Amino acid sequence: MVSTHTSGNKHSGTKYLPITNDPQISPNQQLLPLTAKVINQDFLEIGGCDVITLVKQFGSPLYILDETTLRNSCSRYRDTFQHYYQGESQVLYASKAWSCLAVCMIAASEGLGIDVVSAGELHTAITAGVKPTLIYFHGNNKSLTELVFALEVGCNIVVDNWHELNTLINLAKERLLSGIPIMLRLAPGIECHTHEYIRTGNLDSKFGFNPNDLDELFRLIIQQKVLNCVGLHAHIGSQIFECQPHRDLAGVMTQWLNKARENGLSINQLNVGGGLGIKYTESDDPPSIEEWSKAICEVVQKACKASNLPLPKLLCEPGRSLIATACVTAYTIGSYKIVPGIRTYLAIDGGMSDNPRTITYQSLYTSVVANRMSAPVTETVTIAGKHCESGDIVIKHAHLPQVEPGDILVIMGTGAYNYSMASNYNRVPRPAAIIVANSEANLILQRETLQDLIQKDCLPERLRS
What we know:
pyridoxal phosphate binding; Ala_racemase/Decarboxylase_C; alpha/beta; TIM Barrel; 2 domains
């Protein structure tokens, strides 16, 4: 249930709109998890669990992950690629969106592989039981330790640059290894309409080889028996609302595949990245998972047919569109401040330490009051975090009913890049995370304690006297 108002301070007592958690609609096109509903007229329920009761039990702030929505998104990607692509396909979960044991296990149980970008994410995926052959290790500056770890694990390594390529060759020769599975990341030079910081596909990017170096790159790899180049990778950005840039990308990558074969390199995988956007506000209108997947499958098949190429194994690596909508964050409302003629600040018990996306990307969110779901919308307020930072604003213009301290505010779409980017700014402990399903709630991440905050602190002996 969300407000119909989008601006201004005058309200007509409009009530929230009905929740549109239609299982036929792609989860990334909805604001709340698929299981969200209102019980007893006023109370928000997710996964069969009353949000107010959850906060009483687990505290706030609290990440609430709906297992049904996450599994639905995973299966939609998996099934759509299998339906529209005539060759082999593999969906990977971009775990940078939210890496923890429970999430990785669920993704793997739905047949997905895992995309990792650090030793920590790789360790999490391995510990969760993901097969190394289904793990793809990305990153523009993998450390020597991380590359050694990847070699020991036996996962696929997505090579990003010349330095990494040469380092990997030397490591393999030192260890008498051969046939190391690698992919090559390329910068395709494709622009997309998204935030500057989450555009990764244009040529002016820290990621990927320059496509102009392809011939030289292919020649070097052919000479190196220690490497087995299984595929090509590209990624053009995040929170994208258009299918055309991905159609363009799929077409460009098929041309690269053809060039590889002309150079005598047999490559059989194409990874087109991820980047499909989600609905954070009523005005957002992203393509569905099905529309995005179908567009890519069709372009790759058409391009391969035109070039008389066998169909490669087609990979994609969604993150945000898999998990963002599946999670909400519940906060307890505290103080408020009225600045006459300007705005009303409504403070919550979290903020930029558990959700840094607003201050980082100027991201927009939608909110509801979990214990006043049927109350009329009468106020426009600014949701402020508790941190000692003027920019700690979670929502600048939130449209809510009248609230009181102690009410529970729910921010939607917080499953991606919230916990994974969380910090201990102001020495605030990171929140707990729970997973809900079939009226049952279980911890998947414990709330940090004050003792946790100083656990790694060290005091030199000279300071103790």
